[in-house]
Amino acid sequence: MNAAEIRKRLERNQRYVAAPGAPYSDVEAQVIGAELDRLEDNGVPVTPDNVVLLATPDDHPMHNLFTWDNEQAADNWRKSEARGIISHLLIITEPEEGDPVVMKARLSVTTKSVEHHAAAPEYVSVCRVLNSPPLRAQLVDQARQELKSWARKYEALGVTELSPVYVAVDNWVK
Description:
Number of strands: 4
Strand content: 5-15%
Structural class: alpha+beta
Order of helices and strands: HHHHEEEEHHH
Strand order of the largest sheet: 1-2
Radius of gyration: 21 Å
C-alpha cells in the first residue's frame, strides 16, 4: 500500500476520540479534530500559539479547555514546568562491562497517598519502582500498553517492514 492509498484509507475511516486522561470527551474530540483540520485546510499551521488564538473567543468550542485566569494559568504553568524538570532528569549507570545505560531518574506511577487515602500520580525513583512489586507491575503494564499502542500505530499506517515486531508484540501482550 503506497502513501496515497494509506492517506485515503485514513481519511475515509477517520474519527477522533479522546486519549486516556484527556480533559475532554470523545464527542468533544470530534469537534476539536474538526477545528484543527479546518486550521490546516486553511493553510494555518497547527501550533500551540495558533490553537490558543483559535480558542480565545468565549464562544469557541475549545475555549473552556484553557485556563483564562492568568493567576491560575501561571500556577498551572509552573506545575507543567516542574513536570518537565522531573521528566528530563536522567541517571547513567556504568556497568562493569558494556556501555553506560541512560534512563529516566523517576517514573510516573500511581501510589496511594498516605494523607489523602486516594490513588495519585507521583514521580518515583527507578530503584523504588523496581523493588516494589505493585509499582513494578504498573511499570510492566505500562510497557505493555505502550508497545501495543506503538505497534497499532505503525501497523495502521501500513509499515509492513515491522510485521515481525507486530507479531511479537501481539504474542507478548496477550
